[in-house]
Amino acid sequence: MYTNEFSNDEITVTYEPSVCIHAEKCAKQLSNVFRTSIIPWINLDNAGTNSIINQIKKCPSGALKYHKNENKKAS
Predict the structure, then answer these.
(1) Which value, to the nearest 10 degrees, does the dihedral of the CA atoms of residues 22, 28, 31, 37 take?
(2) What are residue 34's phi and psi, to 5 degrees?
(3) What is the pLDDT of residues 12-55, one digit of tens each?
């Protein structure tokens, strides 16, 4: 299964195109992050982490998922 992955310092978002039902909730409700006409179409720098997570939770197909990145401190 093909998956796209997008990361910033706080989270990693994955998108599975074969699962997506193209309801476009992400693009309609948080268009500054989920942009249908620009590649890469997900830009995690355009909103706060909590806003992005809340939008991903609204994905009706489950094609969008996220996990929080571990903060690695230098020893």
Answers:
(1) 50
(2) -100, 95
(3) 999 999 999 999 999 999 999 999 899 889 999 999 999 999 99
Which two three-digit tokens encode residue 1? 């299964």
Whether residue 35 contacts residue 43, with contact meaning beta carbons closer than 8 Å, is answered with yes
Q: How far apart are CA 23 and CA 12, in angstroms?
A: 22
Residues 6+ apart with CB under 8 A from 9: 69
CA dist 10 and 36 (Å) reads 23
20 HSE (CA, 13 A, CB side): 16
The one-letter code for the residue type at 18 is S
